[in-house]
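Homework-ish question, so no full write-ups if that breaks the rules, but can someone show me the predicted structure for this set?
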Amino acid sequence: MSYKYEYARAALTVDCVVFGLDEEDLKILLIQRDIEPFEGRWALPGGFVRLDETLEESAKRELEEETGIKKVFLEQLYTFSELERDPRERVISVAYYALVQLSNHRVKAATDARDAAWFSVNSIPSLAFDHEKILSLAHERLRGKVRYQPLGFELLPTKFTLRQLQHLYEVILDREIDKRNFRKKIQAMDILIELDEFEQGVAHRAARLYKFDRQKYKRMTKNGFNFEI
Amino acid sequence: MSYKYEYARAALTVDCVVFGLDEEDLKILLIQRDIEPFEGRWALPGGFVRLDETLEESAKRELEEETGIKKVFLEQLYTFSELERDPRERVISVAYYALVQLSNHRVKAATDARDAAWFSVNSIPSLAFDHEKILSLAHERLRGKVRYQPLGFELLPTKFTLRQLQHLYEVILDREIDKRNFRKKIQAMDILIELDEFEQGVAHRAARLYKFDRQKYKRMTKNGFNFEI
DNA sequence: CTAGTTAGTGTATTATCGACACTAACAAAA
DNA sequence: TTTTGTTAGTGTCGATAATACACTAACTAG
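A: Not a homework solution, just the prediction itself:
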């Protein structure tokens, strides 16, 4: 079966930049290509868009097929259209970035006969296509957006300590933050629920756990409240 | 002549949201469709992407063909992919927004047998396709971005008064700004060149003209300077 | 020369930001 | 059980930035 059109059409793909956070640093998820072009090279998960799905649905599907990840925060990043970005033919790619709780997706078994692995954003191997460019734009966007939108919580488990939250901002913004000032600011925003639970199994004083109060945040933004780190 | 592909492909278009500013308010440029679907309805300028051009080139070409506008500030907005956004077939559209000096593009003659006209963002007619959605996202993006990037200057003539500049922010941000505080803030940024020229032909004291110092702004951003209104 | 209109300027109060250091709690090791 | 090591948790003060606010100067038109 084949499809005919009066004018030439570009192929359309989606690519996903998946961010995760652990105790050391910010990581992204890459897959190893098992077909040409760039066979064996690491690349962003992604693939061709079908006609019966929106771009976002397509990104979610590819992400699940290639890495097993589902139900993630996903947002459109940019559409890349350089003429020579794919050596086979004209391919235009819509990039998305995703934020996941890395602890839930620890070791990613190869789902589709490929390998998948987490890499620190500070030591990314050479990537296929223009994926390094996509990745660097995604990283920039995350850094910019995390300061005025509470995206960060997507990278943390539901219950987290203030230390984890601060660490998140330190890693993403790549600078140290004063502990007292940070806690002052967060508490002033009043968007966390203080739990009567504490972290477990640590060899020192256990820190209190908190939850992000999504409801309250939504209500507050309607009244012109401004989240800002 | 026709083109065959193994899998079905969506058609790809670009659409442009062109902003201009005059003495009253913020305006956008619309064209009247002369073919089905939505014949006679107002719509964003745009059209099909060719295989030998990037999306940005495509947006620039369509803009010139349909409205005569060239050499504008142009930035990608978002890619729209709802399944039913075009009644004919599956069409995915990459939206751009453009900022132009309205005074240079006053009355837009119909270039392509269509009519083109400026509309106040506060009184937009019913638009074709999902163009109202695109427009409203563009407006939101402009409002957000103008506060921390000096986009506004793209909407003003090269030489402008501080009153014009303030008016720009008042119109886009939709709130009044204190004259003295505004001037204090702008002068503290030190990104304007004070000219020895004054506005002409006004029935009151003439205001001094200024130019945006693009060079200096670039140098400053490299050193971590933060533009913020 | 008078009326009308906008340009251009400073200060005082309030809110926000940023630097900074100690005690409390707990687990592990001695 | 005592000591050691590690992180949790908390407040103040000075500097800086944000805001509110009103008058005189300059020019044109009638």
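Now go work out the reasoning yourself. Hint: Chain B touches chain A at residues 1-12, 48-49, 51-56, 76, 78-79, 81-83, 90, 92, 94 (CB under 8 Å).
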